[in-house]
TrEMBL record:
Catalytic reactions on record: (S)-2,3,4,5-tetrahydrodipicolinate + NAD(+) + H2O = (2S,4S)-4-hydroxy-2,3,4,5-tetrahydrodipicolinate + NADH + H(+); (S)-2,3,4,5-tetrahydrodipicolinate + NADP(+) + H2O = (2S,4S)-4-hydroxy-2,3,4,5-tetrahydrodipicolinate + NADPH + H(+)
Subunit structure: Homotetramer.
Transmembrane segments: none
Enzyme class: oxidoreductase
Superkingdom of source: Bacteria
Full protein name: 4-hydroxy-tetrahydrodipicolinate reductase
InterPro entries per record: DapB_C, DapB_N, DapB_N_CS, DHDPR_bac, NAD(P)-bd_dom_sf
Compartments, as annotated in UniProt: Cytoplasm
Domain spans labelled Dihydrodipicolinate reductase N-terminal: 8-128
Keywords: Amino-acid biosynthesis, Cytoplasm, Diaminopimelate biosynthesis, Lysine biosynthesis, NAD, NADP, Oxidoreductase
Amino acid sequence: MSQVEPLIRLTVHGAAGRMGQRIVALAAKDPQLSIISAIDSPSSPVAGRDAGELAGIGKLGVPITSAISSSTDVIIDFSTPEATVKLMAICAERRIPVVVATTGLNEEQKQEIAAASQFAPIVFAPSMSLAVNVAMKLVREAAKALKDIPDGVDVEIIERHHRFKEDAPSGTALKFGQIVAAEMGQTGHTHGREGQTGKRPQTEIGYHAVRTGDNVGEHQILFGLMGETLEVYVRGHTRDSYAYGALAAAKFLAGRPAGLYTMADVLGL
Ligand SMILES: NC(=O)C1=CN([C@@H]2O[C@H](COP(=O)(O)OP(=O)(O)OC[C@H]3O[C@@H](n4cnc5c(N)ncnc54)[C@H](O)[C@@H]3O)[C@@H](O)[C@H]2O)C=CC1
Ligand SMILES: O=C(O)C1=N[C@H](C(=O)O)C[C@H](O)C1
């Protein structure tokens, strides 16, 4: 007789936000998951509203609240850096597995995540998208292959997002830059260019953050050589590309030991 796996009890942190609503909508349809709480800011204007109704899928019986249930098996966090740091203290203390998808954290805030991962398993990644994580592998390969080209290679990263995004460059663009620099050795960076900039040094990576309309996320990584350009381009069509990845990460964490995991671990890349 086949054994029925118990449902994974999920808390959504940042549940009233753009991503939080998609997590609620997709998790509600997932036969392995049960949404037990939907957390948002204590000052949220939608506190008390039903999370399902807010996400456009009808009543779920889970209100938007600010208190994390002690019976949660895993938390998915799409919120703000400050809220993520507060969440880390709770997850470490209660040993709750958590998927951290929030971006824009400074080094000190990232240290809080690393510290919490000594007590609880944590997936921390700037992009939960499968396509983006595959693109990261391709970019690493390209950087490796191009690192010793005699005339040098200029690397520029262009990212495009919606007008509501609060951090720049995107966490994903910064991660692409780290991957390139680890292979090619660039030590500097520049954000956009203006005026008499002088010649471009190959020791820097250029970042360009475009903010327009409702763009859910595009990244272009350019390797400029003399005579040709290699371009890796990855484009999201809907936020569900990130949401499905976050749900996979939540399932991956069930039963894992404490530690810091990446989406490459989740996706087996
Ligand atoms: N890793 C990934 O794949 C992705 C990461 N993101 C990142 O996720 C974050 C959220 O993105 P969006 O949903 O577009 O933003 P959003 O602004 O729509 O949602 C953030 C939510 O967090 C809530 N919040 C604020 N303080 C809180 C607190 N103390 N406790 C709980 N919730 C709190 C806000 O009220 C809001 O509802 C951003 O940092 C974004 O860059 C977004 C998409 C994909
Ligand atoms: O804010 C967003 O929307 C996104 N943020 C993430 C980032 O900063 O990299 C991931 C994705 O590109 C969407």
